[in-house]
Automatic annotation (TrEMBL):
Protein name as catalogued: Succinate dehydrogenase hydrophobic membrane anchor subunit
Keyword Nucleus: no
Record key words, sorted: Heme, Iron, Membrane, Metal-binding, Transmembrane, Transmembrane helix
Source organism (scientific name): Flavimobilis rhizosphaerae
TM region(s), chain numbering: 25-51, 71-90, 111-131
Subcellular location: Membrane
Pfam family, one: Sdh_cyt
Primary residence: membrane
Signal peptide residues on this chain, from the entry's feature table: none
Record-linked InterPro entries: SQR/QFR_C/D, SuccDH_FuR_B_TM-su
Keyword Heme attached: yes
Length: 150
């Protein structure tokens, strides 16, 4: 029977060779950059939606329709959706890698995670770009002012 070899406590760390490349490094950098951008986008979103106007009582279909009638607001909301989903998915992926012990469990959880990511991003993108601010047959009291002029 052989005795296990215990390395000296102050010996240099021997890094094992990996084939992953720099994916984890890029994920780490992405989390920092996307976090800063998301904080700026979220505070802008909260300021415009809650503080600049009449507060939460003014948020209704007409408010969203008026905001999304402008392409720049749609793009800002799209960037916020995509960044938030990528940031959150990368964070949950890291948690799965850290805590799922079995390869099969890790694989199943990642498939579920990536499926949820695709469903939310595709649905959210479709909603943002197919949203009709002036739907036919809608209650005129709920429509934005520019819809009543048409």
């Amino acid at each position: 029977m052989s005795t296990p070899v215990i390395t000296a406590p102050r010996s240099p760390y021997a890094r094992r060779k990996t084939t992953r490349g720099n994916f984890e490094l890029y994920g780490w950098v992405f989390m920092r950059i996307s976090g800063v951008v998301l904080v700026a986008l979220i505070f802008t979103h909260l300021f415009v939606n809650l503080l600049a106007g009449e507060g939460i009582n003014a948020i209704d279909f007409a408010f969203v329709a008026g905001k999304w009638a402008s392409l720049p607001w749609r793009i800002v909301d799209l960037i916020m959706l995509w960044l938030a989903m990528m940031h959150g998915t990368n964070g949950v992926r890291t948690i799965i890698n850290d805590y799922a012990e079995k390869d099969r469990t890790r694989g199943i959880l990642k498939v579920l995670l990536y499926s949820a990511f695709v469903i939310v991003v595709v649905t959210g993108t479709l909603v943002i770009f197919t949203f009709d601010p002036c739907p036919a047959g809608a209650d005129p009291a709920l429509l934005a002012d520019f819809c009543k002029q048409l």
